[in-house]
Amino acid sequence: MHPNPLFRSEDRALFEALIDGIGFGMVFHTTPDGPRVAHVPLLSTGDGALQFHLARGNALTRHLDGATALVTVNGPDAYVSPRWYDERDTVPTWDYVALEMEGRVRRMDDEGLEALLHAVIEKFEGRLEGEGWSADESSDATWSRLFKGIVGFEMEVLAWRPTLKLSQKRTPAERERIATGLETSGSPALARLMRSLAA
């Protein structure tokens, strides 16, 4: 989390929207073999918990149950050029949106993992155009093989640490130039957030 309080928020609805919109994050934990990270699809329960699954052989899997872990979700980010400032006698920066969540992790039972897999499939298939794919299209043998190879987890989030660094220190005119510059250089999502959140 960025140390400047100007870049923080207490807006839980915004956090939930970020998790839902991105749907992917990183789980960090220190193991006896050193720090490890896993990249996972994430599902928010809507009541302060995150669910995810890992391959059974993942370096984190055997260490997470009962542990305190950190999950991060990275939103849009982009380089910000001084060419968009009133004064060019400065240095570039990087604007970004990120959410860190710390909490206790528990291993899910088979019923919970089954529900998680179906919920993730339904959510992400629903975002694609055309006829969707259903878990029912997997044979029992294929599904069983997949199921035996993964472990489900749920993390109760105890601390939410967002960073919404969107050029808040700049004047409204500069922020608009930055947003326009971001749009034209391939970062429209960050420009939209800058206009809606940093105004």
UniProtKB/TrEMBL annotation:
InterPro entries according to UniProt: Split_barrel_FMN-bd (IPR012349), TR_PAI2-type (IPR007396)
Protein's UniProt name: FMN-binding negative transcriptional regulator
